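Per reviewer request, we include the raw input and output of the structure prediction for the construct analysed in the revised manuscript.
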Amino acid sequence: MILGFDIGGTKCAVVTAEIDESGIELLAKEKIATDLSVDPTEMIDRLITLADRLCGDKKPEAIGISCGGPLDAEKGVILGPPNLIGWNEVYIVEQIKAHFGVPVRLQNDANACALAEWKFGAGQGCDNMIFLTFGTGLGAGLILDGRLYNGTNCNAGEVGHIRLEKMGPVGYGKVGSFEGFCSGGGIAQLGYTLALEKSQQGECPAYYKPGMTCAEVTAKTVADAADAGDPTANEVYRLCGEYLGRGLSVLIDILNPQRIVLGSIFARSENLLRAPAEEIIRKEALSCTAGCCEIVAATLGERIGDYAAIATALQ
């Protein structure tokens, strides 16, 4: 039996799984709210108690932990993720290993999800694969030459920080970044800006009412309007798709992957994003690299966090 911990800013999950020659079977899962008012050590103890209950009289063979970065995977230390306020230099691997006495591995969530899609999802059979989270933010996990690439200090794959324009939506603390254009927050910013422009011209997109704040516009409300045929919403997703194509072209030319797996928003709105992205890739990327790279949606869906923690244990 394999044990996994998925650490998030609002919720944490504990999951168990069995692995054999036929594949993976997720056995049980429980979630609890992340309590940032207590010391991280206490929160981890709560998760250990939950894990003991799930495992029963069975001892896990290995344990994986998926958590937002920054972190040091080699040392097993969480280093103050923005969604885990107060989790600074938390030696989570040491604490969990001391209790269970089995191998414990830690990975940032983008890398862990890359491992999950590579082992169990859309990346199976690839030696060179890129996974992009494409959700609240934009991060990448890199599978190169058949293994996860962490970089010198475990910070490889932070592609959301790449600047694509001097001006534009803000993501990853940078105006015009890849994350600014290609994330839930970025789509909301684009949607709000275009809606303001249209409303001042006497038009009102379906997802917007005069006086709304940017926080009231979401990637989902814009996508729903786009699917219903709203022209402004479609323009938002066309722009997002074009900048997705620009960012992917850079990754395709530098890393020459067999497959790029796109999660979350792309998986839900592929019909809006694929065509403009592929048009830009045809213009920007080398034909010899783009021609051998397949772009696909992630397949593990809402359970990717569970698979990510288990895949980390198997790394």
